[in-house]
UniProtKB/TrEMBL annotation:
<comment type="similarity">
    <text>Belongs to the BCP1 family.</text>
</comment>
<dbReference type="GO" id="GO:0015031">
    <property type="term" value="P:protein transport"/>
</dbReference>
<protein>
    <recommendedName>
        <fullName>Protein BCP1</fullName>
    </recommendedName>
</protein>
<keyword id="KW-0539">Nucleus</keyword>
<dbReference type="InterPro" id="IPR025602">
    <property type="entry name" value="BCP1_family"/>
</dbReference>
<dbReference type="Pfam" id="PF13862">
    <property type="entry name" value="BCCIP"/>
</dbReference>
<dbReference type="GO" id="GO:0005634">
    <property type="term" value="C:nucleus"/>
</dbReference>
<keyword id="KW-0813">Transport</keyword>
<comment type="function">
    <text>Involved in nuclear export, actin cytoskeleton organization and vesicular transport.</text>
</comment>
<keyword id="KW-0653">Protein transport</keyword>
<feature type="region of interest" description="Disordered">
    <location>
        <begin position="192"/>
        <end position="227"/>
    </location>
</feature>
Length: 287
């Protein structure tokens, strides 16, 4: 059954002066294993990009779908249709012996190991297996490319609410921190310079999530998902990492480089993240 419905105005633009609006109704639904499995597995493959083959995505999908009390999908053709987005949280302490999730956990730890403080913070929470108030929740989700960011505030709000309700039923969703997995992209320096000289004003308007460290001379970093900026503001640690199976860039390379991003936030900050997402990406009211 749909959890709630929300009207969206999805903008489809061929250029900056020609914009048309298409009204789409999104259904926020509980996980439905018999219809959601293939689509969620495909979205996990999209999230993990060139390293997707390192993981048993089917087993991770099964684990996500087994949690019918926390998490949601977004659909446009009713609860029996394929999901276009999903959001879930997995308890890395409780599921420490789950082979597929343990593999993903160890992969992330290996990437995070380049940042000693970040790595120590994660290990401290994971080692607190006997402390019911100190578990680590992996927030994992992805959506198809043309889904607007306005769908994410209600998704995160539902996740926050359902975690609260699950705790009232004494279910293992008491977390001290959340680890959030996402992606970034970078254009080549030449492409950045070309775009900057031809259309710098439009680029500034479109890309609200650029990250340019002070003194940096390399390509700018852009978030795949604009809402990641809200998460990063609350993060105590954040790291961008290269995929293990990514082809090295050469002088002949064209297009963008895609990389991973992992962020750690205290659980107490999730409410602030949800509030800021709702302010930055408000849900359009139905007519």
């Amino acid at each position: 059954m749909p959890k709630r419905k929300s009207q969206k105005n999805d903008e489809d633009s061929s250029d900056d002066s020609d914009v048309s609006n298409v009204d789409v109704e999104f259904d926020f639904c509980d996980f439905k294993p018999e219809t959601d499995y293939i689509a969620i597995k495909r979205l996990l493959q999209q999230l993990l990009y060139t390293d997707a083959n390192l993981f048993d995505l089917g087993a991770i999908t099964d684990l996500i779908l087994s949690q019918d009390d926390v998490g949601c999908t977004i659909k446009t053709d009713g609860p029996e249709s394929d999901p276009l987005s999903f959001l879930a949280v997995l308890n890395l302490n409780i599921h420490h012996s789950h082979p597929a999730l343990a593999n993903l956990r160890d992969y992330l730890l290996s990437k995070i190991s380049v940042d000693k403080r970040f790595h120590e913070a994660i290990k401290a929470v994971l080692d607190a297996s006997n402390d019911a108030s100190g578990h680590l929740g992996l927030i994992i989700g992805e959506r198809v490319y043309n889904m607007p960011p306005q769908v994410m505030p209600p998704s995160y709000q539902m996740l926050q609410d359902e975690i609260k309700w699950a705790l009232e039923d004494n279910k293992p969703y008491r977390f001290s921190h959340y680890l959030i997995l996402s992606r970034i992209w970078r254009a080549s320096a030449e492409e950045e310079a070309e775009e900057g000289s031809s259309n710098s004003a439009a680029r500034s308007k479109r890309r609200k999530t650029e990250s340019v460290p002070e003194g940096a001379t390399g390509p700018k970093t852009h978030s795949f998902h604009p809402e990641d900026e809200c998460i990063q503001k609350a993060a105590i640690h954040s790291l961008d990492f290269e995929y293990s199976h990514q082809e090295p860039r050469t002088k002949e390379s064209v297009g963008t480089d895609i990389a991973g991003r992992v962020m750690l936030i205290p659980s107490s900050k999730l409410g602030e993240v949800v509030t800021e997402m709702a302010e930055r990406f408000p849900t359009p009211l139905p007519p």
